């Protein structure tokens, strides 16, 4: 004979489960009006929260030139979608409320009203959840700096071979510093600008910095240009000493693989005193400079 087994179900258990199911389904109809009122209140608060957040973002973007955070943008997009969906349900609600009878616990079209009540409950839960996620201490931050900023430049007439030669040297790990020497007006700055623009137009992992040294206070001028490029320049920056500025620059640049394009050097330039890490094979950084003095270049 085959194995014999039996299943015994308690009638009380079956009745309880059926009752739980029935009352759970009925609650979507009985609570429809209360949930609608709650949704209208929560939705109004969500709209106020969205407006306040958008106002903060606009100030940060327009007045402070910051870029909104991705999580803020995502929240605003989800809020926009949810508000549209909730408004649509609220607009449809009168026709469903009219179907209610017996104190709001029954409906002349129970299936349709039940479905609508379930939608209201679900979207009310989403609105409450999204409201709880809309408290941002910061809404924007400084946008990432471009790896290189394109510079206006004249055509490199007769300089194409030099451009290729310098760019070829830049690809060599053992080359850290490149000097470009020539008399005034021969095209040194133009060549350096073309190198800068080649960085701008190609894919690389350098943080490119352009600075002009000139004759008067060259180190301070270069420090100020670097500070602008790496985000150190502010009101407090101006009051700092040369050594303090050097320390700030060093703390930033030692974390970066940089290419410093240093134009118009007139005398020996102390990179370390300016806070510029010496290029090595380990850090991979580069310094390219121009000068009209052969002894400085050497």
TrEMBL record:
This is NB-ARC domain-containing protein. It holds the Pfam family NB-ARC. Residues 29-63 form a coiled coil. The keyword Transferase does not apply. InterPro entries: NB-ARC (IPR002182), P-loop_NTPase (IPR027417), Plant_NBS-LRR (IPR050905). One of its GO terms (biological process) is defense response. Residues 161-297 form the NB-ARC domain. It comes from Gossypium barbadense (Sea Island cotton). Transmembrane segments: none annotated.
């Amino acid at each position: 004979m085959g194995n014999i087994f039996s299943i015994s179900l308690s009638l009380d258990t079956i009745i309880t489960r059926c009752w739980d199911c029935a009352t759970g389904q009925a609650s979507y109809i009985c609570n429809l009006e209360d949930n609608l009122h709650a949704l209208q209140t929560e939705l109004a608060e969500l709209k106020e929260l969205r407006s306040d957040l958008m106002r903060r973002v606009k100030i940060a973007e327009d007045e402070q030139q910051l870029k909104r955070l991705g999580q803020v943008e995502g929240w605003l997009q989800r809020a926009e979608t949810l508000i549209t969906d909730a408004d649509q349900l609220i607009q449809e609600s009168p026709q469903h409320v009219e179907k209610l009878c017996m104190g709001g616990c029954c409906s002349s079209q129970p299936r349709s009203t039940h479905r609508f009540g379930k939608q209201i409950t679900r979207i009310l839960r989403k609105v409450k959840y999204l409201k709880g996620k809309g408290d941002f201490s910061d809404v924007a931050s400084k946008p990432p700096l471009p790896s290189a900023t394109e510079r206006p430049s004249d055509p490199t007439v007769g300089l194409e071979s030099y451009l290729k030669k310098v760019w070829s040297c830049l690809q060599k790990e053992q080359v850290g510093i490149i000097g470009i020497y020539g008399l005034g007006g021969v095209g040194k700055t133009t060549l350096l600008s073309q190198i800068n623009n080649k960085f701008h137009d190609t894919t690389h992992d350098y943080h490119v910095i352009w600075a002009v040294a000139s004759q008067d206070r060259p180190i301070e001028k270069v420090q100020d240009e670097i500070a602008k490029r790496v985000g150190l320049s502010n009101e407090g920056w101006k009051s700092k000493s040369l050594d303090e500025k050097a320390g700030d620059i060093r703390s930033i640049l030692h974390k970066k693989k940089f290419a410093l394009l240093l134009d118009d050097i007139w005398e020996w330039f102390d990179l370390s005193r300016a806070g510029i890490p010496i290029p090595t094979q380990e850090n991979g950084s580069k310094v390219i400079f121009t000068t009209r003095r052969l002894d400085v270049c050497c």
